[in-house]
Amino acid sequence: MTPPFNARRIAVVAPHPDDEILGCGGTMARAAAAGAQVHVIVVTRGQPPLFEEALVRQIRAETLRAHAMIGVTDTQFLDFPAAGLDRVPRSELNHALSSALARIEPDLLLIPFIGDIHLDHQIVFNAALVHARPRSGNGPGCVMAYETLSETNWLAPGVTPAFIPNIFVDIGETLDRKIAAFRLFQTQVKPSPDERSLEAIRALATLRGATVHRHAAEAFVLVRQIH
Amino acid sequence: MTPPFNARRIAVVAPHPDDEILGCGGTMARAAAAGAQVHVIVVTRGQPPLFEEALVRQIRAETLRAHAMIGVTDTQFLDFPAAGLDRVPRSELNHALSSALARIEPDLLLIPFIGDIHLDHQIVFNAALVHARPRSGNGPGCVMAYETLSETNWLAPGVTPAFIPNIFVDIGETLDRKIAAFRLFQTQVKPSPDERSLEAIRALATLRGATVHRHAAEAFVLVRQIH
Amino acid sequence: MTPPFNARRIAVVAPHPDDEILGCGGTMARAAAAGAQVHVIVVTRGQPPLFEEALVRQIRAETLRAHAMIGVTDTQFLDFPAAGLDRVPRSELNHALSSALARIEPDLLLIPFIGDIHLDHQIVFNAALVHARPRSGNGPGCVMAYETLSETNWLAPGVTPAFIPNIFVDIGETLDRKIAAFRLFQTQVKPSPDERSLEAIRALATLRGATVHRHAAEAFVLVRQIH
Amino acid sequence: MTPPFNARRIAVVAPHPDDEILGCGGTMARAAAAGAQVHVIVVTRGQPPLFEEALVRQIRAETLRAHAMIGVTDTQFLDFPAAGLDRVPRSELNHALSSALARIEPDLLLIPFIGDIHLDHQIVFNAALVHARPRSGNGPGCVMAYETLSETNWLAPGVTPAFIPNIFVDIGETLDRKIAAFRLFQTQVKPSPDERSLEAIRALATLRGATVHRHAAEAFVLVRQIH
Amino acid sequence: MTPPFNARRIAVVAPHPDDEILGCGGTMARAAAAGAQVHVIVVTRGQPPLFEEALVRQIRAETLRAHAMIGVTDTQFLDFPAAGLDRVPRSELNHALSSALARIEPDLLLIPFIGDIHLDHQIVFNAALVHARPRSGNGPGCVMAYETLSETNWLAPGVTPAFIPNIFVDIGETLDRKIAAFRLFQTQVKPSPDERSLEAIRALATLRGATVHRHAAEAFVLVRQIH
Amino acid sequence: MTPPFNARRIAVVAPHPDDEILGCGGTMARAAAAGAQVHVIVVTRGQPPLFEEALVRQIRAETLRAHAMIGVTDTQFLDFPAAGLDRVPRSELNHALSSALARIEPDLLLIPFIGDIHLDHQIVFNAALVHARPRSGNGPGCVMAYETLSETNWLAPGVTPAFIPNIFVDIGETLDRKIAAFRLFQTQVKPSPDERSLEAIRALATLRGATVHRHAAEAFVLVRQIH
């Protein structure tokens, strides 16, 4: 088995824990199973008074369990304030994220989508692209954005940037693991018909798969690919 | 129960039989159950040598059975050549479609999407809009485009017009009927993971529903609404 | 007479006083006359040194008189700093606006447009959509953005999001009241050919009306509609 | 007085007679008054059975009277079938239009908009641009598209190309002449609230003017400008 | 050396001879040098009276010489009329192109861009995508559009689909061969500053390369990629 | 010789020193040589700890030498923090930039592009347009955005606003001066294949020129033009 994109070092940037599972849990699991390194950077941490400390601790534990199930190599927490990236000087965020990515030296970089409704997602998208500027020949050869249920479909259709995928990764063999990993987020999973339900996750994977005649897929918007 | 949009006379324009079921079968069923008139116009008919006559006859029979199950009031067949609308003088097509629509006088008009890969869909989209021009106060108060599995996702993402829905119709009570109606198209239904499979239809309805916290929905792109 | 959209509880979010009159004064007046509740939330208040207190007080008085003329049910002032929303933590703005909207429980939500040149408008657009996320089945069934003369046409055509309306509300019977209400803003109305002149307001209503064969209309960009 | 754009030779391409008056009658009148040559090319002619010969003759007479009022230098009629350009081999249309334009050698070229609902407009847009390809240093230095009431606002907002103007020509001194010229088209002018009414023409000019602080303007979408 | 995309069978669809060299001559040369099969399908042939037979024969000879220099495995000529694809029934074109592609079974498919000014390019783009529909699991895993100097920059910027590349192929080692191959088209190469000059080809390659920190590159717009 | 656009007073807004040379150095040089006034406003200044004071001083000296070579009339430094405009209250930035522009009273205004990857560029774009609102008849008659190598091509193709130029200025006679001026920025010029190399600058000018059959050009996206 070969990893998708023949990537050997993958970096996934998640604004908040669980975004990375919703967006590309199946792709990560497939890559890990094929021997690739999969690194996750979680940019924010819930902080009082917006988020209770006990809840935040539980989410972190869930995150690590989910990452273990997926086969994530390494998880970095940058601990910027969740729902507060607009108050962080952008140069500070850029520096921190860039330093974390530089340590990974990924050949594949997966980021959230700029059209997501959460401002944290929009800001992280931009910060990640600042790092990925091709100012040398050594940056990631492929950068693409994943979709996040409960974020990507809820901005303004036809007005703000739309998630129109052009890359599809077959996750037929790892969809169940993705769903199992998301189920570990007991604080985050919701009953149907919520977009954060297991039913919605499975429906999205089935639809994205059917679009390319696969049983399940994750879909992405390409930012840049260098061959 | 009230019909969606409070529409009393709905016209659905289908380039080929079954597009209307894939695109808005659940909406039609819900409207019919609520007492609205639902009229379908099928624009083309398969013709030799591209299509065998026996197959075409069977599809027509399947169409009428499916329409009966949905509760369609009336079905008109315009019998233009399938996969051949590019050879029909546009003024002829416009005249025929417009005459058919004028007999219906719909307050809600449902049409295929211009970004579908099939040229017939693109041409029908334009022809329907020619009829819907607000040249008097009596035209349809709402015009919107439906999505068709195996057509809408297969043109060029990010380049040709994207189907980014902004209207969602709850079909929680009629999804099963929609699927049953599509199943009647024995010539058209495909096994998973084809986009024309029952699994893909259900996944799409579940996803569109979850986006608006409903168990199932059909999604549309609004063209024009007058209040 | 029925209100537009059959809406019974309408919420209009205005970044600054008079945006709501320019954008949807005729729609509000028609809805109010038909018995709907019309709630307005004014997000900002001019503050020294950018704005003189006496002027701000006068504008507030003009606002309330205009709202009375339109038939507004209730006006809430959130009093964030005008021309200063970029300095307000977004989570704070989101919380305040969401709380105000939750008290109203609107079935129709009218908001400014993200492509307006004023940053306050862009920020309010996003904040309102955060509230409108369909995380339950009880949110507003329709969300749409209005156009504001002197804001919407002045960003970057073809580059930033364009106001391309797809919903038109007939205001033939309430255009005069809209204009009368705007005239009450003695501090804001400008002589022709300013975009904030009565002549421009009337021209826009005539044009939007003619597009759908009505004598006057207000136009909107649909964000999301659930049926 | 200087002509707009300092143009000395202007070519206006009209799919059907009166498009050029609706789209840029005021600009043509201003240019002619300032001493520029203004050439009009009318691409199509109504033909039986779609159009009655007597009517077509009347429209042609109206066209020439309107052009005289505007100050048009020269009018060429290419006589392709109206509402039938889809049946004309594109290379034939391109050749005819290109030959007509080559005789004029315009420095400013005004064409209809590709997002207009009439297929003839879309085809003429493309044909004109084929001629305008910068294959030498002698082509028109400026090419731009005009808007046509009853055509430009009636395709599919947000889906097909939108007319978002970025060039505004002050027609404060020639709006009355434009309206008088259009009034000469007794067969084409409609009562309000039709988009082809004098009221709609005036409203559009007022709105486009107000956007740039002028009493009246015509607006255009730039295709290409070379300095 | 590995071929770009690890592709083993590449199909390039060219509306007219030399489009494939301008668009992806360097990529083809690199792939061929790395052992991949490179198949070219030339869709049209110049026909009298638009094109003289002697010229057409010369171009064909130039094409084959250029393909030999690039290392093209096989060239198919479909011989549809150049500048006349609008007169070919679309189902006929689709069938012929699809048959040719089916014989190749490419894993990488390169096509012209839908926003090119030449109608033949637009039509070929659509026809190629019809073949590439993922109706089974065996289609090309990657489809992308190339840019053609003298075609891609000459439609309507900001209005018609723009070529905004997201895939870059390093052609540092094969740019000279690409230019040498194009030079063989003695009938087609033009002196500077024509877009079909050797100077323009080199400038484009240098710019596309610099964008990704390479000395030379060809750029593409991704249509669909399946992993 | 006449200046491009017949402009007599040109204002160029640069987020950081050298943006204005990369974006429109040739246009400025041509305008200056033709007798126009050319004013540059540099919005930011590097500040410790992000930037060393010695380096900042050197860049400033390089800037003034480059401006002298180009023929710039006057350079204003606003000294906001480089890479820190997100922390500056927007009303403060707007006020400072607007005051500087009001002193110039330009008839042509050149600004960076909103789709550039650097947040400073995006913010300056918006701030400049706030000043340029047509609230009187005296504002700049033409506003357009320039492209900046190492900024404009590095955001997210197809997702964020794309630089699709529609205005081309012939700089055949001033390209060498532009390159000489950029070479003065010893701290900023990079070796090939960096986008900030002299080779990339020349390639871009050659390509933009070839698009309009000129030996060299700078390209712009029009924001608004009033005639």
Q: Briefly, what is this?
A:
Six copies of one chain form a homohexamer. With 227 residues, chain A is α/β, with parallel strands linked by helices. The first copy, chain A, has six helices and seven strands, in the order βαβαβαβαββααβ.
Explain what the structure shows:
Chains A, B, C, D, E, F: This is LmbE family protein. Chains A, B, C, D, E, F: InterPro entries: GlcNAc_PI_deacetylase-related (IPR003737), LmbE-like_dom_sf (IPR024078). Chains A, B, C, D, E, F: It comes from Sphingobium chlorophenolicum L-1. Chains A, B, C, D, E, F: One of its GO terms (molecular function) is hydrolase activity, acting on carbon-nitrogen (but not peptide) bonds, in linear amides. The structure is a homohexamer of 227-residue chains. By secondary structure, chain A is of the alpha/beta class. Chain A has one domain (4-222): LmbE-like (Rossmann fold, 3-Layer(aba) Sandwich). Chain A has 6 helices and 7 strands, in the order βαβαβαβαββααβ. Chain A has helices at 19-33, 53-70, 90-104, 119-132, 175-183, 198-211; strands at residues 9-14, 37-45, 74-81, 108-111, 142-146, 167-170, 217-226. In chain A, strands 3-2-1-4-5-7-6 form a 7-stranded mixed sheet, sandwiched between helices. The relative contact order of chain A is 0.18. At the A-B interface, α6 of A face α6 of B.
List the helices and strands and how they pair.
6 copies of one chain form a homohexamer.
Chain A: E1 9-14, H1 19-33, E2 37-45, H2 53-70, E3 74-81, H3 90-104, E4 108-111, H4 119-132, E5 142-146, E6 167-170, H5 175-183, H6 198-211, E7 217-226
Parallel strand pairs in A: 1-2, 1-4, 2-3, 4-5
Antiparallel strand pairs in A: 5-7, 6-7
